[in-house]
Structure formats: C-alpha cells, structure tokens
Amino acid sequence: MSTSILSLRNVTMRFGGVTALNDVTFDVKEKEILGLIGPNGAGKTTVFNVITGVYQITSGSIEFQGKSLAGEKRYKITRSGIARTFQNIRLWGDMTALENVMTATDTHKRSGLVGGLFGSPISRREEKRDKKRAQELLDFIGIGEYGDRLAKNLPYGVQRRLEIARALGTEPKLILLDEPAAGFNPAEKVELAKVIRKIRDAGYTILLIEHDMSLVMKVSDRVVVLDFGQKIADNTPQKVQDDPRVIEAYLGVPEDAS
Amino acid sequence: MINLRDKGAEIWERANRPQRVLMAISFIAMAAALPFLGGTFLNTPIADYQSVLVYPIAMFVLMAIGLNIVIGKSGLLDLGYVAFFAIGAYTMGLLGTRTSLNTWEILPIGIAMAMFSGIILGVPALKLRGDYLAIITLGFGEIIRIVALNLEVLGRSGGIIGIPTPPPIFGIEYAFDSHRIYYWTLLIIILFAIWMVRRLSVRRAGRAWESIRQDEDAAELMGVPTFKYKVWAFVLGASVGGAAGVFYASKTLFIAPDNFTLQISILILACVVFGGMGNIWGVIAGAVILGYLPDRIRFLSDARLLVFGLVLVIMMNLRPDGLLPRKKREKALPNKEKP
Q1: Do residues B94 and B154 lie in contact, with contact meaning Cβ atoms separated by under 8 Å?
Q2: Domain spans of chain A, in order of start
Q3: Which CATH number does A4-81+172-251 carry?
Q4: pLDDT at B254 over 50
C-alpha cells in the first residue's frame, strides 16, 4: 500500500446553519486517481475549496504531506504542491494560452519584479526555462498548437484542457480536477480519460470530481462518495457501484421499502 | 473602425531590429521637435505653447503612465492618484527651500517618499476591492491635500513659494522661462517610465498584474502572491507620480494645495480611460490630447469646458475601449502558411 499524500480528518464545514461537510475523513494516496462523486449539493466542490484554502474549515484537520494546511494562505498552499481546475472555467481570457500556463509556472520562480526590471541573469534564465516548460505542458495535454491564441477565443474543449495545463504549470504533486468533462461529448470524454491517465503516469496524484459515472469508474483507482456532506462509501469503483447506500443516494428508495 | 493599436503592433512585430531602432528614434525625434512647432496650427492661443507642452501635456503623460500601472495593468481603481503627485511636489518644496539639496538630489527622495506613502496606503487599502478601494484612495487624495492646507510647515493655503529651479546639469541651464529644457528633461523621464513599464509587462510582474485584473481569486489559487503584486503596482505607480511632482514643483517655483485637487486625479484617470486602459501608447495619446485640448480651444473661453466634456462623451461612445485599446489581436499561428 502506498503512502497517503493528503488526509482529511473529521472535516466539518458549516456556513451559518448549513453543514456543507459533516465529519468527512478520507485519504488520497500517492500516485492514485481518486474519484469523488455524489449527487448535486453533496459537498464535492466544497471539499476542493477547503483543501485549497478558499474556506477555512469549522473543525477537523487537513494534512498535505504531513503538514497541516490550517490558516495557510491560498497561494502558499498552491506553492506547497496542490493545484486545481475550476468547475466553471476561470482562465484569464485576455492572455494567450501560453501566458496562462506561464503565470502558473511563475509560482516557483526565484526572481521577482526587481530582477525582471533590470534583466538579472536569474530572471532571464528562468523566463526562458519556463517558456519552454509551459509549451511542453501544452504539448503534453495535447493543445500545443494553441499557445499563441487568446484563452477566451479557444474552443470550449481546449479551454477545459488549458485549465489542466495551467494547474500542472504550478508543478503540483496533487492535482484537483473539478468536473473536467463537463459539457464534453462521448468522444471527447474518451480523450480526456486518456489525458487523465497520462497525467497520473507522469507521476502526479489526482483527485477527480466528475458527474459522468462511466468516466469516473473507468479511470479511478478508488472512489469516495459524498451525500449531504457525509462520506457514505470509500472503495474500489466496482464495490462502490454495488453499494446499496450509494444506489440509494443516487436513486432514492421506494416509499414502501423498510 | 480599424484598430490602430493592432495595426501598429503588426508593423512593429514584422520589423527587424534595425527597423525598430529607426522607428523608435524617429518617434523620439518627433516628440523632441514639438517645441519648435509653435508657429504651426499646433500653437495654443492665449497660453504659451511651450509652457503647455511641459504642463499639462508632458506632466499628464508621465502621470498617466504611472496611473496606468495601477488601473490599466492591475485593475485597481485609484481615485486619489494626485496624492503621490502632491507628495513629490511638497517634498521638493520643503527640501528645496529649507535645505541646500538641489532638484536632482531631491528627485530620488521625492520618489522614495511617494513609494513609501504608496505602501502606507496600499497595505491596508488593498485588502479591499473594487468600489471600496476606490473610495479609500479618494479619501487618501483628499487627506493629503487637507493636511497640506492645515500644516504650518507646508505653508497652509499659501503653499510654498520660492522653490529653486534645477541646477545646471551637463552644462544645461534651467532658466525658469526656458520651457524647452524642462520639456526635454521630462521626455527623458517619460522614456524611462515607458522602458520600466514595457519591461515589466512581458515578465512575471506583468503576468501577475494581468491575472489579478482578470480574475484575482483564480490568480491567488494558481500561486500568484496577489497582495504583494498589488502593493507593487501601487508603489510603482506612486513612484512615477512622485517624480512628476518633484519636477512640477521645481518648474513652477510655487505650489499650493489648490494645485492638487481631486480634479487632477479625475483628469489623469480620464487620460487613461480615454486613451485605452492597459495600453501604454493609448494612455500616452490620451494624455497628450486631454492635456492639449483645453488650451487649444481656450479662445472659446467659457464654452471651453463644455466642448471638452462633449468631446469626451462623444469619444467614449464611439470608442468605449479608448483610442488605442489593449491587445485584442492574436499573433499569427506558428503553423500558418506564409505566402
């Protein structure tokens, strides 16, 4: 069994009277693809938001590589090795695809504004290196030819992939994909499944939110199911599919069943 | 309507290095030759043409470049930009009349003072966004003016008189009425500011600002230290404003709180918006036109401001993104066939 890279322990997140996450505990293991599913409003995106520091959890703990993320600034969490994509695409539309990825690669630059202004050797070297790296990532995701296009003018599917490339630009160890296949046709979904596996094979760990069951079941090594903010299953895709509680959460139970 | 900005960028991108150098030199030469064109239609009736070139035109251009870093690049609405101009001017006024320091020695001090106040204002204010930030900066601009109006040492409403002109540098004399010399000096400062902004725009800082302007939360989540870069934008904008202020005080020899009203902030903002937020050439064009126009039509006397306002309204209707808007065009695809 490989070691855990991210662990959520008894995580509870309340917004006023609404409990979005209730005592959720699970681990993400190194180099696995963990699917996170659940009906609408189950708290999947909230999980992403508490991991990346958008929300501060009410109670519980989140540890990434043995270090607590509590109170950490959002950009520092990203620097420590967690990157994400967004359910509703949030690229910087007025920048080119390449610039979008390069902004992410800037995360680990040593040179800042002053070095850039005076063209210090470190700054120049890093600029060159990251430009190359950004293009590599675009190629890796299969959208290399779109580098010079403004993000807002890209086809929808390419934008979704660019989000993944941008997340990879921060050189993460764990990447959180929030419904990467939303709005895709079946052929595009097959392509995406390949890309996701390719990312894992390149050494990244993936936490995947997805509504398309066949995609999740196909690519995931393990699946965690949330319902009304609670974890109701954590198992292999096959076993999750047969779990009566999961079926109940998705389909409901007949009224006369006892 | 044709996009002049894209046309210009296209010509520039196609040019090779010597051609670019040539273009840059001819532009600078044209700008430097402006004081000699007083006899042509460019001449301003009533106001002294060469003096108009220094203030408002060149001063506005410099300040608009500074404010563009804050508003155009980073999307932070700053309505109190005049404060940094005032801080630079009063630093010059105070040190110039009370110490033996000369303008060139005070210039870095004035810039440092403006940058420092940029930090003082920016650190608390930049935790806010949008309208709230605008209100805070608006207040800051007024605070600086009112402080100047009430402090004995700053001369209260009388201001500071007898500010020395810059001492000769490289054998060039700065007589108070040789406007050309001031204009050319400002031109050099402007060129330096353009160099700074262009340099930063294509590197990490420029990308950080651009990402903050477009989606600050996404930027933060992609590892951009947004707060740090917002403060940097403020501080760099302030430094340009401060430099303009020092030079302004040394040119006019007399400053008073009335020179630093909210109206200046709004006018500079108008230059940025009118020219095209985020695009340095647009901003320069906007500042030149808005600085020049009121003096050009001064013969209209009272109707002058009405015409000025009308021009603004009509232009913003015709070109809501400004004269030369920010980059819209994409570079040609690399795999596109060349004829």
Answers
A1: yes
A2: 4-81+172-251, 96-158
A3: 3.40.50.300
A4: yes
